[in-house]
């Protein structure tokens, strides 16, 4: 087996101490995470070498008025980037809004090194990661309108949460990737039809936890 390439990240924060601290944490990780760019605005994630980063670690409060950088998050997600929102603010509404916009996950800065490292690696591998603050936000936001998912739809959904790719899901349950996509499209449509859209994997994870289909500890 060949040597695994390190995960690469761009770190966006307007506090120099946070930038330095995250760089140090990533350098000390096992295996290390390579920080290819840092910056005080999201521009650093769009310009070389930041545009090559597998994961963007994004502070949600970058503007002088400390308003949420939802526009930056949306543009990064729409461009196919994996974004870990990393913020001082512990707010259930903000956490769920970030997932619905397409963030890979949401962490508070109080959650520390281990969660940030694990979340960054998970994002690079397109796996869900639920840190304690996000788990609390999801659990506190249980919504009554639950779609009726078939047993097979639930099986495919949970397998996908626990896999790095749809190809692996297909192999595990003995179907084609096209069939996996069909089941996931049905699940998304059913959630949209009850007013709980989930266009990303992270958002679907949140919905599934809210509805008791999976436990955060199982991911």
If you had to describe this structure to a student in words, what would you say it looks like?
Strand 4, helix 3 and strand 5 form a beta-alpha-beta unit. This protein folds into 2 domains: 8-139, Rossmann fold, CATH 3.40.50.2300; 151-218, Arc Repressor Mutant, subunit A. It has 219 residues and is an alpha/beta fold. The mean pLDDT is 88. The chain has helices spanning 16-28, 70-78, 92-101, 112-124, 132-139, 151-161, 166-173, 177-193, 201-210; strands at 8-12, 34-39, 55-58, 82-87, 105-108.
Largest sheet: spatial strand order: 2-1-3-4-5
What percentage of residues falls in helices of 4 or more residues?
40-55%
Class of secondary structure makeup: alpha/beta
- Characterize the overall form: globular
Please tally the helical runs, counting DSSP H or I stretches of 4 or more residues. 9
Radius of gyration: 17 Å
Distance between the termini: 26 Å
| Strand segment tally | 5
Name given to the CATH homologous superfamily of the largest domain: Response regulator
What CATH architecture of the largest domain would you give? 3-Layer(aba) Sandwich
Provide the low-confidence segments as ranges.
none
- β-strand amount: 5-15%
């Amino acid at each position: 087996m060949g040597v695994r390439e390190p995960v690469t990240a761009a770190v966006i924060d307007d506090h120099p101490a946070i930038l330095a601290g995250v760089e140090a944490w990533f350098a000390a990780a096992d295996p290390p995470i390579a920080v290819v760019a840092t910056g005080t605005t999201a521009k650093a994630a769009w310009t070389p070498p930041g545009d090559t980063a597998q994961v963007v670690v994004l502070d949600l409060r970058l503007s002088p008025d400390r308003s949420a950088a939802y526009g930056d998050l949306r543009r990064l997600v729409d461009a196919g980037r994996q974004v870990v929102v990393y913020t001082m603010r512990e707010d259930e509404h903000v956490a769920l809004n970030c997932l619905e916009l397409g963030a890979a996950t949401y962490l508070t800065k109080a959650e520390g090194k281990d969660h940030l490292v694990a979340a960054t690696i998970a994002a690079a591998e397109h796996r869900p990661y639920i840190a304690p603050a996000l788990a609390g936000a999801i659990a506190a936001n249980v919504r009554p309108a639950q779609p009726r998912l078939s047993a097979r739809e639930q099986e495919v959904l949970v397998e996908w949460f626990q896999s790095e790719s749809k190809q692996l899901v297909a192999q595990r349950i003995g179907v084609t990737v096209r069939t996996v996509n069909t089941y996931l499209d049905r699940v998304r449509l059913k959630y949209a039809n009850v007013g709980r859209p989930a266009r990303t994997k992270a958002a679907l994870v949140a919905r599934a936890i809210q509805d008791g289909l999976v436990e955060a500890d199982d991911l």
